[in-house]
Amino acid sequence: MSKTVLIIGGGVAGLEASGVLSKLGYTITIVEASDRIGGKLNRWANLFPTQRPAEEVLNYLKFQLDPNTSIITNTKIDDISLGKTQVSATLSNGNCIQADAVLVSTGFEFFDARKKEEYGYKIYENVITSVDLEQIFKDGKELKTSQGKTPKRIGIIHCVGSRDEKVGNTYCSKVCCVTGVKQAIEIKERIPSCEVFNFYMDLRMFDRHFEDIYKKAQVEHHVQFIRGRLSEAFENPDGSVMIKVEDTLLGKPMKMNLDLVVLMVGFVPSSSSVFLKKGLQLETGNDGFFTPADEHYKTVCSNQKGVFFAGACTGPKTIENTITEARAAALEIATYLNQN
Amino acid sequence: MPDFGYKIAKDRQIDYDENKRLIFSEVAAWEPSIYRCISCGTCAATCSAGQYTDYSLRKLILLVKRGEEQEVITNVSKCLLCGKCQLACPMGVNTRNLILGIQNAVKKTTYAV
Ligand code: SF4
Ligand code: SF4
Ligand code: SF4
Predict the structure, then answer these.
(1) Closest Cα to residue A301, out of A312, A314, A288?
(2) Which CATH number fits domain A4-107+270-339: 3.90.1210.10, 3.40.50.300, 3.50.50.60, 1.10.3720.10?
(3) What per-residue confidence (pLDDT) applies to B10?
(4) Nearest C-alpha of chain B: how many angstroms from A211?
(5) Which residue of A22, A104, A115, A314 sits 20 to 30 Å from the alpha carbon of A151, by its own alpha carbon?
(6) Cis ω for the linkage preceding A49 (within 30 of 0)
(7) Which pLDDT score, from 0 to 100, does residue B111 have?
(8) Is some CB atom of chain A closer than 8 A to the CB atom of B59?
(9) Exposed/middle/buried for residue A268 (C-beta within 10 Å: 0-12, 13-18, 19+)
């Protein structure tokens, strides 16, 4: 009988690793807490930096899955423990699973913007998040203010819930800068006359093509980049939002009214990581993300034999990095199972 | 009225809604490479005028974009139009023509003075 691998989390990392491990001859069970596989990709319309439809990547991930993969959705893990050579898990549907190795691919959750109360999310009507905006794009809806007007001025606020000791997240979420630039372009493509401003502390355009879309946003779409972190937001009687920032490159405080404010929410560790950490005796950093066995050359291995990581459970990551990591994890798991 | 020696300090806040940005509209049409500027400051570091005065082309471009027109007017005259900044700019901003455009726009929009 072929050896078995339990994959916790059926998002990008879990699906890609599953496909590779099936090809290598292993029997896979994916346990997914939500009602469908694909993770956050299900909630995204288009991907940076090329604006390709998220669905294309989702379809690829589903297509390469082996038909014999056992996929259990709507199911959580109630109990998990490591034996000498096996891991045992009790599922919320009452079933028990034994596996020879386990891949933790639990991903991330979006920062809850309500915690940054001064920005007014769920208090002011015209403050939304990058996730809400993506949903509007995905549903093919028109972008309107809550008063039903076409916005004339939109502000995109970077680093919401990231690089912020006050909310307890000191790290950079890595992908929200480029998402902010992508969404700024997408707003301009829909409403060319709308003024769009990105309020940033640093623009972290680290990957291939990122710098190109930043230039495109400025030169082709006249998106304005203002270096300064949102300090305060107030709601006007007409529903528009008055914001205050410092234009740090001019060294002057600045105020302006915006019809719509979009908060670029960052990554936080999946809520399941506390439980998995305890059950599998894994290590996490102060930020709550899992710590791999080595940050340079064992990024997909954990401190426990037979437990592996892939994707954003070890920190914010792009989709391509997650896919690459998932393949690396699959290979690492195969090597481990061959030796044991 | 007796002078008690008090006065109200001028608000130095940029009021984006109040500012007109007339110079910007002129300049952006005249020299669209203004949109390429990434505020890196390479121009300002090499600028001879900036060595002796508090002039910076990087700041001047931002003042134009924000519509801080009084400050644009006081600053743009400090440039020597030597064109050194153009050699240094990594983004290919046509700086000299941009500054000429700002100077022309200031003349055209002397409403402010
Ligand atoms: S990627 Fe950009 S927006 Fe996101 S946390 Fe880092 S600096 Fe802030
Ligand atoms: S052209 Fe003006 S801004 Fe440019 S280097 Fe010469 S003095 Fe400075
Ligand atoms: S060197 Fe060029 S890009 Fe940099 S601030 Fe000056 S004009 Fe802008």
Answers:
(1) A314
(2) 3.50.50.60
(3) 80
(4) 11
(5) A115
(6) yes
(7) 55
(8) yes
(9) buried
CB distance A252–B14 less than 8 Å?
yes
End-to-end CA distance of chain B: give it in Å, rounded.
29
For A250-262, the DSSP string reads: TTEEEEEEESEEE
Opening angle at CA A254, ends B80 and A184, nearest 5: 90
Ligand 2 contact, B83 CB (< 6 A): yes
Both tokens of A224, joined, read 């304005």
Per-residue model confidence as pLDDT tens digits over A1-15:
799 999 999 999 999
User: What tens digit of pLDDT does each residue of A105-159 get?
Assistant: 999 999 999 999 999 999 999 999 999 999 999 999 999 999 999 999 999 999 9
- Can you list the positions of beta strands (E) in A15-85? 27-31, 46-47, 52-53, 70-72, 77-82
Q: Does domain B22-112 have CATH number 2.60.40.10?
A: no
* 8 Å CB contact of B14 and A224: no
Please state which CATH class domain A113-267 belongs to.
alpha beta
Residue with the smallest CA separation from ligand 2 atom 4 is B85
Q: In chain A, what are the domain boundaries?
A: 4-107+270-339, 113-267
A4-107+270-339 and A113-267 in the same fold: yes
**What would the pLDDT profile of A187-226 be if each residue is shown by its tens digit?**
999 999 999 999 999 999 999 999 999 999 999 999 999 9
pTM of the model: 0.95
Rounded distance between C-alpha atoms, residue A326 and residue A332, angstroms: 10
Instruction: Say whether residue A236 is in contact with chain B using an 8 A CB cutoff.
Output: no
The mean pLDDT of chain A is 97
